[in-house]
Write a structure and sequence with these properties.
About 40% of the residues lie in helices and about 20% in strands. By secondary structure, the chain is of the alpha/beta class. Helix 1 crosses helix 2 and helix 3 packs parallel to helix 4. The longest helix is centred in the middle third of the chain and has 22 residues. The N terminus and C terminus are likely disordered. The structure holds iron/sulfur cluster (SF4).
């Protein structure tokens, strides 16, 4: 089953829809970006401050841990102050779940396998049903093997010793089926499913299998992915593959770092796949090579910082030369092509300025701001022209022979459609 998402070209597998506060999750809703606070939830000020930062960066919903009563006691005030819906992350203590529901939380993350007494699980499910809030249940590679029943544990361990990958996914599916039966027995269907592993190939195959078997919305994530330097690759490999296949209704990229990076990378992933509209400038830059004649890496970092406040998705290209730069900057609204101590700036295929290396940052920024303002006034459209320069054409330093010999001064030839 698939559904077209308005405004994007991807086709996504259709799931049931649940509501996390005001945020729809699943069905034809856009993929929801979530993160988790790293503060002590009982520290209301620190938690709200972090939630505000995450929300400003593009986080749609946020999870907070509630290991103690003092954490659930803090929830009403956090919920009151938070600009986005709150999910309570519950492990082991069913009372925390009941307290969180009473506090007005918008979703619960619960692992029935962590709560021994089935009556307690049923009580939490009924409380969520009465409050009209969804529950996310998940299986996790780390705690998947049966702990209580020794016979089952031995059988599962034996299976996994022969085919770890396949057996793990089979066990994940079986456990999820067991959990779903508990929810259905309580006439509760606002369920979100998750199956996490540190191995992207397991994550991909597990969600493919879950997606073909259930129509509950899916929460995608790679667990214990590590710091951004390593976790980024694992997370994007797994989540990017699944999202590109139309699988996944909410994502959390989890890092051993400030959660702001989870949100920044998650947002970039969704924008890159056309699953979220971009509202800020998109920066592209060449990787540099032996042809480079300016300090492009430093320039790119400064351009990124300088453009951060613009709220129009202008595509800005910072390219090291005119050899491959123009082709690679195709579709850029504003672009600079650097040469020996110089830069030529283009706005939608039109050469507008030639500046020295020292002027490049400010000139590019000025053109980006001017172009964004034109778009906002309806006088220009984003990405409706291509930058085309007849390569190769050395720029040369100011006053060079190339410049002197060029008819009309410094301009590079522009080939227009
Ligand atoms: S744009 Fe020019 S400098 Fe940059 S990587 Fe390509 S060829 Fe090298």
């Amino acid at each position: 089953m698939s559904a077209a998402i308005p405004g994007v070209s991807r086709t996504r597998r259709k799931t049931r829809q649940v509501k996390v506060g005001t945020v729809p999750l699943g069905g034809d809703a856009p993929v929801v970006l979530q993160s988790m606070t790293s503060t002590y939830t009982y520290d209301i000020d620190a938690t709200v401050a972090q939630i505000n930062r995450l929300a400003a960066a593009g986080c749609d919903i946020v999870r907070v841990a509630v290991p103690d009563k003092r954490d659930t006691d803090a929830l009403p005030e956090i919920i009151r102050q938070s600009p986005i819906p709150i999910i309570a992350d519950v492990h082991f203590h069913y009372q925390r779940a009941l307290e969180a529901v009473k506090a007005g939380v918008h979703k619960i993350r619960l692992n029935p396998g962590n709560i021994k007494d089935r009556r307690q699980v049923n009580e939490v499910i009924r409380a969520c049903r009465d409050a009209g809030i969804p529950i996310r249940v998940g299986v996790n590679e780390g705690g998947i093997v049966e702990r209580q029943d020794k016979t089952v544990r031995a059988a599962e361990k034996n299976m996994m010793s022969q085919d770890y990958h396949g057996s793990l996914i089979a066990i994940m599916l079986r456990k999820l089926e067991d959990y779903i039966r508990i929810f259905e027995a309580n006439d509760f269907y606002d369920v979100v499913l998750a199956a996490k592993s540190v191995d992207p190939t397991i994550v991909i195959d597990a969600y493919r299998a879950i997606s073909s078997r259930f129509d509950f919305p899916l929460h995608l994530g790679v667990t214990h992915a590590g710091p951004p330097e390593t976790g980024r690759i694992r997370s994007i490999a797994a989540l990017g593959t699944l999202l590109a296949e139309g699988i996944g209704d909410t994502i959390r990229i989890s890092y051993a770092a400030d959660p702001i990076y989870e949100v920044e990378d998650g947002k970039e992933l969704l924008c890159s796949l056309g699953l979220r509209a971009r509202h800020e400038p998109e920066l592209i830059a060449c990787p540099t090579c032996g042809r480079i004649e300016v300090d492009l890496l430093e320039l790119v970092g400064k351009v990124r910082q300088k453009l951060a406040h613009i709220r129009t998705p202008v595509k800005v290209a910072v390219m090291g030369c005119v050899v491959n730069g123009p082709g690679e900057a195709e579709g850029a609204d504003v672009a600079v092509f650097a040469g020996r101590g110089r830069g030529v700036i283009y706005v939608q295929g039109q050469q507008v300025r030639t500046v020295t290396e020292a002027e490049m940052l400010d000139a590019l920024y000025d053109e980006a701001v001017k172009f964004a303002a034109k778009v906002e006034r309806g006088e220009a459209q984003l990405r409706n022209a291509q930058v085309q320069i007849k390569p190769p054409e050395p720029i040369g330093p100011p006053g060079s022979e190339h410049e002197k010999n060029k008819p009309g001064g410094v301009s590079l030839p522009v080939v227009k459609n």
